[in-house]
Every structure is written in structure tokens, then in C-alpha cells.
Amino acid sequence: MDITPFIFIAAFCFGAIVGSFLNVVILRLPSEGESIAFPASHCTSCMTGLHWYENIPILSFLVLRGKCKHCNEKISMQYPVVELCMALLSLALVQRFGLSITTGGYFLFCAALLVIIWIDIHHQIIPDTISLPGIIIGLLFSTVCPELHWKDSLIGVLAGGGVLYVIALLYFLWRKADGMGGGDIKLLAMIGAFLGWQSLPFVILASSVSGSIVGLLAMIKQKKGGQTRIAFGPFLSLAALAYLFFQEKISLLYDLYLNVAFPV
After folding, report:
1. For residue 18, which of 115, 153, 95 has the smallest C-alpha distance?
2. Are residues 134 and 219 both part of a single domain?
3. For the residues 142-153, what does the mean pLDDT come to?
């Protein structure tokens, strides 16, 4: 079907609204015993409940100039950034897959990755309440998604979790310390479930390279040497998003590399 401007606008707005909810999840999920549903949205500084017009995704932040109307405290830039990111991801999914079950499944996938990125940055944890159900949902999604075969999804789960587990085990045996959390292992299994085992070489390579570069910069800045710790989940998540939207170009570059490196 043709994607009309109205559908694009609706996709953007829907993504922004979901992004607003994701901000609540990011804020409350790591806090033990806190509900993501209650209480209603409120200022985290003065705890005053927000009116509906103070809670419009992206727009309210701009109108309020990034400050709470009641206590004048600054509102974190995270809120409009998450809302805008989810809106743009929603738009990109509709552009790529149209209005389809594929778009719906990958919308959930993108939302989960966005939450994981921010929670891992703030707390250096990847909640099992996202990754474990994500694995199951990814496997179920593969049975109805025309872009993904269920066998590729199942192998992706086993290989994704297995590869990082082996790496983590070898690192522990070598350094006698944990170098990778179990959350990263479950996250890669979830990525394998949604994208298939074919995505794993790129996701592992791209996340390792980008993570190493950022890690070296962090070591230089923090001056902690080998004690420097960075969250790896965001790099896995961003690599997965890159593969989702640029799979054909990545495959083309890979084939080009093989032709140059190993000419027939």
C-alpha cells in the first residue's frame, strides 16, 4: 500500500507518545518496588503532578523551555531525546516495512532497545524483565514475520547467548574477574531472536569496535586504567538498530570485502 503523509505523521506522533511512556519505564524500572503505571506523571524534583498540556511529547519541553512550571527546576534532556528517537524509529519502520506485522514486531524491539540503552547508561544493568520476555517475543515474532525464519531466530538465540557466554567465561578464567555481565549475554540472545543469527557477526564486531574506542577514551579521561567500566549494552543495541535498517548495505559491504580479500 502507498504510505501517505498522514500515515507518516501518525507514525511519528505515535512513536513520540510511546517514547513518553518509555521515559517512565527508564526512570522507574530500575527502582525496586516502583510501579511504571502509578502514580501519574509528575515532576521528579517537586513531585507535583503534571497537567496533560505539560506532558505532550517533545512539544511541552520546548514550550516550558526545559524547566518545570511549578518549581523551575531543569527538565532532563533525556525526555525529549527519547521521545524524538522513538518517533524517528517509528517513522523509519513504516518507511521500510509499511503498515505490517513486521513493523509492529520491530517497533516493540526498537522500544526495548531504547529502554535498555538508557538504563544501562545510568545504572550499568540490563533488566531481565526486558531481555528475557524479549527473547520469547522475538521467537514468537519469527513465526509470523515474513522477513525472518523461525530457525534463524532460534539459532540466533542459542548462538547469541552462547558466544558472549564463552567470551565472558574466557575473560573470567584469564583475569579472575567479571568482564561482561549476564545482561549483555541475554541482550545478544534477544537480538538474535529478532534479527536472526545472520546479524550476530556484524552486531558483535560493530559493538566491540565502537565499545573499545569509547572505552579507550574513557580510560584516558578517567585515568583508571583497567578499572574503567563502561556499559556495553548501548553498543550492542545501536549495532542491532544499524543492522535492522541497513542490512542490505552491510551485506553488500561484506561481500565486497570478501571479493577483495579473497579474490577468486
Report:
1. 115
2. yes
3. 96
